Structures are given as C-alpha cells and as structure tokens.
Amino acid sequence: MADVVVQSDRKSGGIVIDDDWPGYSLDLFSYPAHYSGDLDCVVIPHGVIMDRTEPQNDQSTEDVHIVGAEDLSFLAGKNVLIVEAIVGTGKTMKTLLKHVEAFGPKMIKVAGLLVKRVPHNSACLPDYVGFEIPDQFVVGYALDYNEYFRDLNHICVISESGKTKYKI
To answer: What positions does the domain Phosphoribosyltransferase occupy (predicted)?
Structure first.
C-alpha cells in the first residue's frame, strides 16, 4: 500500500493502518457515481484485498443470531477455524465462540480480515488478522450499510452524509 503509514503486526502477519492516516483520495479510484458524496476515503484498495482473502457476503445486525449451526456435534475433537470479515466490538465473536465451544472441538482459531481498534476489546482479538483498522464504519467489498455499498471494489470509510442518506 504505497504512501501509507502502516506497520506489519509480527504476531498476526496483518497490516496495521494508523488511526491518523487519512486514507487514499477518492479521486484515485473508480466507484459508482451514485455514491459520490457518501464516502470519505478508500482505506484498503481492491488489489490489496484480493491478495489476502476471498470475499464473502456479510450483514451487520444489532442482535447476534446463529442460523444454520444449531447442531455442530460433528466438530467434537476437531480443529476449527472461524473466519470473520470484520471484528469490531467482539459481540458476535463472543457469542459464536461460546456456541462452538459447547460442542467440544479440539482447538478453535479465529481469522479476521478487518479488526477494528475498539477500546476494551482485547478479550476477543482474532488469532490471525488481515488488516487492523481504526474504529470507523467501513463499507465496500461485500460490507454494507443497510444493503448499500456492497458493490464497491474497495473498503472505504462512509461519510456522515452517506450514513444519513442511507439510514433506515
């Protein structure tokens, strides 16, 4: 990531993006015109993400509900890797880990593409981190805000006017 003040986190192998880094100017990227004015900057460009993971759709919700994983007894005695697109408050991860642990796996490891630096969240940090990012609301690359912005090829910080425009 050229011209970025980043560090490599030796423990996780992830990239740490400093809180005060302003991001890439939107003028450097192509994005759908209907998002003009709704984004502040590009935090992680498309090509960097392609090198680290395959994107999966994700949906953010207030309450954590585990769907389709009621009986995980087949995990007993197995090694389990949980892959999360984004880890913020850790609420989802705590709930999921508790649920999976109940089925007696041999080992559980967690990988997070994006891990936000959120105060008081050291108890739920993943074992493997793709990018450590500031505690800002990010969209794009399958991360949405009320079903918008999933189609962006980059991970961007949504602007306050964008939040207002697409608020439900």
So the answer is: 52-145
